[in-house]
Design brief:
The complex is a heterodimer of chains A (192) and B (583). Chain A is of the alpha+beta class and 192 residues long. Helix content of chain A is 38%, strand content 38%. Chain A is built from six helices and nine strands; from the N terminus they run E-H-E-E-H-E-E-H-H-E-E-H-E-E-H. In chain A, strand 6 and strand 7 form a beta hairpin. Chain B has three domains: 169 residues, Rossmann fold (3-Layer(aba) Sandwich); 154 residues, Rossmann fold (3-Layer(aba) Sandwich); 173 residues, Thiamin diphosphate (ThDP)-binding fold, Pyr/PP domains (Rossmann fold), CATH 3.40.50. Helix content of chain B is 41%, strand content 16%. Chain B contains 24 helices and 20 strands. In chain B, the strands form four sheets. In chain B, strands 3-2-4-5-7-6 form a six-stranded parallel beta sheet. In chain B, strands 11-10-9-12-13-14 form a six-stranded parallel beta sheet, sandwiched between helices. In chain B, strands 16-15-17-18-20-19 form a six-stranded parallel beta sheet, sandwiched between helices. Chain B is globular. Classes of the chains: A alpha+beta (192), B alpha/beta (583). The interface between A and B is medium-sized, with 30 and 24 residues.
């Protein structure tokens, strides 16, 4: 029997850019009672094709079943599943802190410097700090800033680039060729 | 004469050209699109939002498109499904917005779980009102999303031909299924220049998967080395119209065949290599031998829990070859050794050349011994009782003999459904119409209507329980309106039989809410101009059946059956297929 240990998987879905596609995708996870840790939707490198990046925590067995059910959705072009070591990824976090805290000591400034974060916005009332990295990095920074009072905190979904060598364009080309071939075949068989 | 013909063709040609040049309403474009898709019959129910479509239908009804008005949208949905199942065409069903659309949901889910191609057209409020909780507005796309293969909302008339074409392509290809197209009222009334192009491919969906030759080769090797092989024949073989290919394969390899519920009738029941029905109330042999087999060849079936029983103790000694068009079904419930992802027909053709001619006389005789045990312990008592109340199996067996397995059989859901599946000896493909995956009570009566409309020249006999009959009893009105000569047999035990059986077996006979106080079905039927008769005694059984079979009008026969009869054999929930109980 396959692995029953849960681990983090990043699912990259390429879809047609139609209304309702996100709904169709999330239903698959809801039905299986899988919690979505994060989700990012954006345009992909190919015009007209949308990319969804979904991070879940589940077993290898389950992710294989989910992948097949996602590919079954009519408007989904291709689904890739990767573990963390198969991708290069980043998440971005923003932290809002009172400007008075910065004025009183230089602790915050040194935290920001040593964490490789940066000040995104400075106003008389608040500053916004930006950090890019993995979840652990952004959580660490949050914990360090917490004693000084974090007014708002937000973390983005994952953006990921896969380490695989065969890119989406190659798959699309294959799919196109397969479609043309089957259109030719069906025309031939209707002639017979 | 020839001159007249050529002017007729000229006229039609000009009409077609004019059709292309002139602007027509979206509603008309919808109907023209359906005609392009070779649709002949629509089942539906009108309402406010769908009036423009019905208004256009008024002109061409009975000339190009037949419309059957049911008495509830659920009836239309089930009728469309049965029509699709008997004809092999894609069913079409119309409903209005709001409650019309939501009334379809059970029917859509039923078609989804049993993989039947249907295009549902629901009307929607005007596009500017969407999202504002307007009168009779519901988000049918959101509601039906989990139970449709695809759905789409049309808000512009010019999108209608392309989307309808896509809908038919998706519904009828690959693993078939229901598609919902929601058309707003303004889209129905806008005009467009009609131009139809059949959809032959979609970038994101390719249902024609080429077979992997090495998978076929590996499968053939396993098949040629097997000593106790068994074929599990499912609905997929009927859907890919591969009955002949299955027969050729079976007769060459000599491998015995067992059928799932939806696969029944793909292989003739009387064939020496046919071993029976799989699953919870299936035959003794196929279930017991599953765990003794060394090779299972599963074709167009999905290892549903009714078939497998406890998965941890299923197919314990067998290698499994799974031929399946839907990749998400491969390795979903049961881990298989060889996945053959593709069309059943093509796979059987490819395998045929690589498998050796063979026979398994000893293995087959083991099934025959099982049959004998089952006949002695179960079948004789159920089909040939000499005294006591009439039994369900007895009725089905008698009708099977009288019709020689040539009728189209409909069932509702429950004990009578299992009795029909067990005891009717099917001869021809697509002759059992039943609700398998969803098990919808109320399916039977509207399904009988759809089947009769699809196959007007074949006797259509519906076995329905007293519970299920009342769930869609309003469809008697449809039978009245169209004078459909269906034959309805109500097997009445005044109980929700299957639930009562489970209450007897697992809940200490605590018959909570399963006893039914039934009306006079005969009076009701006669109110709908259906000749009806009720019988209670065995001596009236054969004569009443003969009467019904020779009746040319719609008729209903209510047979009072054994009150607390139980369906055996049974694999109890949680048990393995080897633990199937005979009594």
């Amino acid at each position: 029997m396959q692995n029953i240990m849960k681990k983090e998987f990043t699912i990259s879905l390429f879809t047609e850019h139609n209304i309702g596609i996100l709904n169709q995708v999330t239903i698959i996870f809801t039905r299986r009672q899988i919690n979505i840790e994060s989700i990012t939707a954006s345009a992909s490198a190919v015009k007209g094709i949308h990319k969804l990046t979904i991070v879940v925590n589940t077993t290898e067995d389950m992710i294989d079943k989910v992948q097949r059910q996602l590919e079954k959705i009519i408007d989904v072009l291709k689904v890739f599943v990767h573990t963390n070591d198969e991708i290069i990824y980043q998440e971005i976090a923003l932290y809002k802190v009172r400007t008075t805290e910065i004025m009183t000591s230089n602790k915050i400034e040194s935290i920001v410097r040593s964490s490789n974060a940066r000040f995104l916005e400075i106003t008389p009332e608040y500053v916004v700090i930006e950090k890019t990295g993995h979840k652990q990095d952004t959580t660490d920074l949050l914990n360090k800033l917490d004693p000084y009072g974090v007014l708002q905190f937000v973390r983005s979904g994952r953006v990921a680039i896969t380490k695989q060598t065969k890119e989406l364009m190659a798959y699309l080309k294959e799919m196109d060729e397969a479609n043309n071939q089957s259109a030719v075949n069906s025309r031939q068989s209707t002639k017979e | 004469m020839i001159h007249q013909l050529s002017t007729t063709f000229q006229k039609q040609d000009n009409m077609a050209k004019t059709r292309k040049k002139e602007k027509i309403t979206g509603a008309k474009a919808l109907l023209y699109s359906l005609i392009e898709e070779k649709v002949e019959t629509i089942f539906g129910y009108p309402g406010g939002a769908i009036m423009p479509i019905y208004n256009e239908l008024y002109d061409i009804e009975d000339k190009k498109l037949k419309h059957i008005l049911t008495r509830h949208e659920q009836g239309a949905a089930h009728a469309a499904q049965a029509y699709a199942m008997v004809t092999g065409k894609t069913g079409v069903c119309f409903a209005t917005s709001g409650p019309g659309a939501t009334n379809l949901v059970t029917g859509i889910a039923n078609a989804y779980l049993d993989s039947v191609p249907i295009v549902f057209i629901t009307a929607q409020v005007t596009s500017t009102l969407i999202g504002s909780d307007a009168f009779q507005e519901t988000d049918i796309l959101g509601i039906s999303m989990p139970v449709t293969k695809w759905n789409y909302q049309i808000t512009q008339a010019e999108d209608i031909p392309e989307i309808i074409s896509k809908a038919f392509y998706i519904a009828g290809s690959g693993r078939p299924g229901p598609v919902v197209i929601d058309i707003t009222k303004d889209a129905q009334m806008q005009t467009l220049a009609f131009n139809y192009q059949k959809c032959t491919s979609l970038r994101s969906y390719n249902p024609n998967i080429p077979l992997n030759p090495s998978d076929i080769e590996s499968a053939a090797i396993l098949i040629n080395h097997a000593r106790k092989p068994l074929i599990l024949a499912g609905h997929g073989i009927l859907l890919s119209k591969a009955g002949k290919e299955l027969m050729a394969f079976v007769e060459k390899t000599g491998i015995p065949v067992a059928s799932t519920l939806l696969g029944l009738s793909v292989f003739p029941s009387k064939h020496p290599l046919y071993t029976g029905l799989l699953g919870m109330h299936g035959n003794f042999g196929p279930n017991i031998k599953t765990n003794e087999a060394d090779l299972l060849i599963a074709i167009g079936m999905r290892f549903d829990d009714r078939v497998t029983g406890d998965l941890k103790r299923y197919a314990t000694n067998a290698n499994i070859i799974h031929i399946e068009i839907d990749r998400s079904e491969l390795n979903k419930n049961v881990e298989v050794d060889i996945e053959i992802h593709g069309n059943a027909k093509e796979a059987l053709i490819a395998l045929f050349d690589q498998v050796e001619a063979n026979s398994y006389p000893e293995w087959l005789s083991e099934f025959k011994s099982c049959n004998k045990i089952e006949a002695d312990k179960v079948i004789k008592k159920e089909c040939y009782p000499s005294q006591g109340e009439i039994k369900m199996g007895e009725i089905v067996n008698l009708i099977s003999e009288k019709t020689q397995g040539e009728a189209i059989i409909i069932t509702d859901v429950g004990q009578h459904q299992m009795a029909t599946a067990r005891y009717y000896k099917f001869n021809n493909p697509n002759s059992l119409i039943t609700s398998g995956g969803l098990g919808t009570m109320g399916f039977g009566l509207p399904a009988a209507i759809g089947a009769k409309v699809g196959k007007p020249d074949v006797p259509v006999i519906a076995f329905i329980g007293d519970g299920g009959f009342q769930m869609t009893i309003q469809e008697l009105g449809t039978i009245l309106q169209y004078k459909l000569p269906v034959k309805i047999i109500i097997l009445n035990n005044n109980y929700l039989g299957m639930v009562r059986q489970w209450q007897e077996m697992f809940f200490d006979k605590r018959y909570a809410s399963t006893k039914l106080v039934n009306p006079d079905f005969i009076k009701i039927a006669e109110g709908y101009d259906i000749s009806a008769k009720q019988i209670k005694e065995r001596e009236n059984l054969e004569i009443s059946i003969d009467e019904m079979l020779s009746c040319k009008k719609p008729c209903l026969l209510e047979i009072m059956v054994e009150k607390e009869g139980n369906i055996y054999p049974m694999i109890e929930p949680g048990s393995s297929v080897s633990e199937i109980k005979l009594c």
